[in-house]
Amino acid sequence: MSIQRRSLLQALAAAPVAMPALTGVTSSLAPTASSAASSSPKQPNTYQVKDFGAKGDGTTLDTKAIQAAIDAAAKTQGTVIFDGGVYTTGSLFLKNGVTFRVDQGVRLQGSQNIEDYPLLPTRVAGIEMTWPAALINVYQEQNVKLTGDGIIDGNGKVFWDSYWNLRRQYDPKGIRWAADYDCRRPRLIQFFEAQNVRIENLSLYRAGFWTVHICYSQDVTVYNVIIRNNEGGRGPSTDGIDIDSSRKVLVEKADITCNDDALCMKAGRDSDGLRVSRPTEDVVIRDCIIRDAAAGVTFGSETSGGFKNVKVSGIKVYHPTPVGILFKSAQTRGGSISGIEISDVFMQDVPVVMRVNLNWYPAYSYAKIPEGIKDYPGYWKTLSTPVPKERGIPQLSDVYVHDVQAVGAKTAFEISAYPEKPLKNFRFERLHLDAWAAGSIANAEDFSFKDVTLLSLDGKSVDLKQSKNVRGL
């Protein structure tokens, strides 16, 4: 990595990011004469939500009025617009050909009543099941654009609290794995079986669950979005952008603060994911900033359908994010991961530069119904369906990591797999890693390191275990 590039990254790290104020009170976004949304003249083929009865006062439930504007716009492939204000709403469903414009001075605020999010067939956390719709849905539609400089706020703390309350009941019973499925929390934005969809320039706050979920979709662009999920608390499982069994996806210029994976590839869980067998493929992620998350770039843990042809570049990851590059799965997930390229990454005070953990979080990853529980939902059976070991261990190969700089790390590598399915053909080039410890690599074959500078303060080299043909260390 060049000196010039390092200087640019350090300058970006130091520069403050302008963010819309989030006070948690509706009066902070009261309409003003100077707001962009209020002052913009109405253009032809636009549909103003207040013409359909929306109030935008922060207390009235405006779902029906906004949906009426969307339905009208769909008839002419028009644009839905808002006057400045706070619009409280439940689930909205964007339709073919609609542009949905949330301008500066507009906040869409999610209802805190779960009844305002209708149940729909979808996939959640790797299995197909019925689940509450998201706040904004592109559900089996195409040619949709979601744009503007305004705010979409999930108002999700009530759902975070309900999750933690359930965990306090479930963890002592040995059913921690069920909590994420039983506590039905709305995602912020869902693209499901959608095509040719674009979201741009918006600020996304306080998702009740995942923020942007792209599932069974293709030709999707996420551009220049700000995600802030740690306002007023730290929302559990508030992933930033999840790309789930989808193809031809571009994510560019996302600035993310969340309390789980920031940029995440998914492809189904265990027996259900193996049944569906749809990969995530042809994905480009570039020029993103991760300020606080469980990991910067994540593959898994839902790997059953596999990943291929994924290119990640221009990523900056900062403390307190604990891991920069993460591959995670379990011995019941299965799936093939190959054709991954990760480049031009800068990490500042991120404890672990790269981790591969294929036995991740057993209390969540391995579902087993205790004998004393007789009455349970059908998806518990799906989750607990055994997967033969020969199908359950994932295979990782053909991973190329290059041009990475890490400053202030604790460990460079925490990489391991299973002896019966070692990691194969990983290439590392032009790495400059400043870490306390070099770390370890286990169950690896055909790993190559070229032009790698590893400044381990403990003076030890990478600990190689049960590996062969590892060159350049």
UniProtKB/TrEMBL annotation:
GO terms for biological process: carbohydrate metabolic process. Residues 32-53 are annotated as: Disordered. It holds the Pfam family Pect-lyase_RHGA_epim. It comes from the Bacteria. Gene3D superfamilies: Single-stranded right-handed beta-helix, Pectin lyase-like. GO terms for molecular function: polygalacturonase activity. Residues 1-23 form the signal peptide. Keywords: Glycosidase, Hydrolase, Signal. PROSITE patterns: TAT (PS51318). Residues 32-41 have a biased composition (Low complexity). InterPro entries: GH28_Enzymes, Glyco_hydro_28, PbH1, Pectin_lyas_fold, Pectin_lyase_fold/virulence, RHGA/B-epi-like_pectate_lyase, TAT_signal. Residues 48-91 form the Rhamnogalacturonase A/B/Epimerase-like pectate lyase domain. Belongs to the glycosyl hydrolase 28 family. This is Rhamnogalacturonase A/B/Epimerase-like pectate lyase domain-containing protein. The lineage of its organism: Bacteria, Pseudomonadati, Pseudomonadota, Gammaproteobacteria, Steroidobacterales.
